[in-house]
Amino acid sequence: MHQDFFPPGIAVLTGAGISKESGIDTFRDADGLWNRVDLEEVATLEAWHRDKKKVLDFYNRTRAMFRASGIAPNDAHKALARLEREYEGEVTVITQNIDPLHELAGSKRVIHMHGRDGEIRCMACKAVFESDKDLTPVSVCPNCKAVGELRPNIVWFGEMPMHLDEIYEVLERCGLFLAIGTSGEVYPAAGFVLHVRRHAPRARTVELNLEPTDNKSLFQEHIYGPATEIVPPYVARVLTQGWR
Ligand code: APR
Questions:
Q1: How far is the CA of 182 from the centre of ligand 1 (A)?
Q2: pTM > 0.90: yes or no
Q3: pLDDT score recorded for residue 37
Q4: Which atom of ligand 1 is nearest to the CA of 16?
């Protein structure tokens, strides 16, 4: 009934590729982060238990980089904000990125499935706080006063992504699913396109990426190039002509 009455939703999955032209490195490209840094050393719970200083310093540096002048939303982030403003149905950005560039571009419905820079969590009392201060191995939880239990509220390898129930609901009611700037190598995000095909079989699925990914065959339409060049015209097309 809803589907007949309201325009169908648009679900947009974004990955590191959308922020590349804002100056933030991706993970798996030749110059990507995981080709320079051993993820086992900085992005797992085991690493945090083993060497809190190393892990916290890594995220302190990441935060400083996000705050550095020159890091700003690019035309692809802005186009998605425009899509949300101008499309009469629901537009949801599901991002794997921890950077704040979708929000800075003006997007309102943003789900950070891998967490968000600027939030910290206490491993002792589980409370989550907004904070842009550096963490150290002796930082004190503002809630329970535990020492050394604060960590970035970011999903590490082996941990469960956030907001999955809400995400699957968004996917199941969408009429258009876009995957932008993601290699499709990390689950569950890599499986979202299949989830859409199974649970929203009338939805159109489109991959927008610098180059074809291993998931290419799962999408009905493919648009390749730098995000700042391909996303704005695609959004303009959807707003004027729809997506069929
Ligand atoms: N425009 C569009 N796409 C681009 C651009 C660009 N300018 N530059 C690179 N890409 C593409 C690459 O071709 C690649 O397919 O973006 C993709 C980036 O892939 P990854 O580095 O694997 O990033 P992502 O898919 O977001 O990684 C998923 O892995 O390490 C974890 O938690 C981390 O959220 C991250 C998750």
A1: 4
A2: yes
A3: 92
A4: 26
